[in-house]
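Quick entry, no commentary yet.
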Amino acid sequence: MMRQRTSQILFNYWNEVRGRRMAPRRFEIEPARITGILTETFILERLAASSYCFRLAGTRICDQFAQDLRHHNLLDVVAPGDRLVMEDRLETIAAHGAVGLFEFETRTGGRTGRCEMIVLPLTDARDLVTRFLGAMSPIGTDSWLGDGAMSLGSLVRNELIWPEGRPYPLIERGRMAPVFRPMLPPSRVVKANEREFRVFDGGRANDPRAER
C-alpha cells in the first residue's frame, strides 16, 4: 500500500500514460505533468543485472544525501544486506511489469526516520524495460530533518504491485485468441471423366427428400 502522497501521484500519472500496456515509453513521460513532486523523483537506467544508475535525481533527494546522485548505482546507496533483495525486485519489475514499493529506515546526523520509495518501469523503442521512474519521500514531516548527509538503513518493507492483477506476460498470453480451425465433415475422393472431386458426406445425400 502506498502511504505517501508523492508515491500515489506518481503511480496514478504513470498508470494513466501506460494504458493497457506493461509500461509507458520513457519519452512519453512529461515532467510538466508532475511538477509538484519533481524534487522527490528520479530516473534510473539499467546498465546490467546489478547496475541501476541514477540518470536524474530531484533536488530534495540530492540535498538529503548531500551529493548529486547522477551516475551512482542505486544498489550502492542501499544497505549491503538489502542489496540482493533490491536486485531481485528490480529484475522482476523489468521482466514482468510490476511496481516496486519500498520502505527504508533513514539516518541523518544521529536522527532516525523512514522514507518510502516507489519504482515504476519504462520501456524503450524495443519494448524492453531499460529505465525506471521513481520517487523517494519522507514518512512523517521531520523524517528528513537533521544535520549531515542522510543514509539508507534497513529495508523494513517491500512489496510488488501488479497494475493488471498479475504479471504482464500472463496477461498478454491470455489475450492471444486461439487459431480457429473449422471442423469439416468426413470426405472422399471420387473420379469421373479423368477428373477428381472431393465429396463431403452429408448434405443432400443424407436428406430423405433427395430420394423423392
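second:
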Amino acid sequence: MNSFGRIFRISIYGESHGDCVAVLIDGCPSGIPIKTDDFKKDLLRRKPGAVGTTPRIENDIPIIDSGVFNDKTTGAPINIRFENKNIQSKEYNTYTEIHRPGHADFTSKIKYKGLNDFRGSGHFSGRLTLGLVAAGVIAKKIIEPIKVQAKLISVGGNSDIVTAVNSALQKGDSIGGLIECSAKNVPVGYGEPFFDSVESMIGHLVFSIPAIKGIEFGSGFKAAEMKGSEHNDMFINKAGKTRTNNAGGINGGISNGNNIVFRVAVKPPSSIGIAQKTFNFKKNKMDILEVKGRHDACIALRIPVIVEAVTAIALADFKLLH
C-alpha cells in the first residue's frame, strides 16, 4: 500500500494538486537532532529549475507537525508535510477522456472506478517523492557513519548529459537516464533472507519512485555474460574486503562489508510535446493527443537524491532491526 518498513516505518499521503503531500515516519529513535534547515540541501537537489525540468516551482518548505521537540526527535511519530500552492489543473480534464500513453491515467481510473484525483496525476505524481526525500534526511542521520551517494551517469545512453537533454528538448521529446548509487561503511550482516534480502528491500523502495524501470546490483546483467572465475570477488583481508565488487556488496542477500553498489534505469517522461495518436475513450475512436501543462523532459535529473533517500530508509530499517 502506501507504507513501508518494519521498525523505521514510513507512510506517504497526499496528491499533486491537493492541499499537501506528506510523510508520516514511525519508529524513529528519540534524540536524533532535526531542524528545518537540515532538509534544505536534499530538497533543493530534488527541486526543478534546471534545463529539462518542469517549470512548476513550489516552496517545498517542510512543516513538521509532530515528533520533534526542542530540535530533537521524541520517539513519537513524525509528520512532515509540504503545501501545494503553484497549481494549474485545467489541462488535466482532457486526460480523463484521452488518457496519456505511459501514465497511470487509464489504470488508476479503472482501479478506483473514476474516483481518483486526476489533477496533476494525483497520488501517482512524482511530487509524492518529497516525502521520501524528507524521510531520507532523517534516515541518513540514523545510519551514520554509512554514507549514501547517487549520481546521474548518463542520459539516453549518452554521458554528455547537457547535450542529450537539449537535443530532446529541441525535438519536443523526453529522455531517460541511468543513475548509480553507492553506500559506504555498511557493516557485515544487514539483510534478512529470503524475502527481506538487502536487494529485495532496496529494490522494493526504488520501484516506488515513479519512472523507475530497472535495477541491477554490482555487475548486474553483465553477470550473465561472465564466468565464475571472472565474477567471483576474491577476499584480500580478514574484514572481508574483496579485490573486485561484482556482488555489489551483497552475498546471499546479506551485506558483506564492501560498498553496496547498484544502478537504476529511469524511463523518459511520458508527457511529451510531440502529438501522439492514441485512443479517445469518450469518442470511442483513435484521436490525436497534444499534452499540455508543465512537465519534465528528463525526470532522471531530479531522481539521484530520491534514490539516496530510499536507500537510506532501507538501511535505517535494517540497522534498527539488526
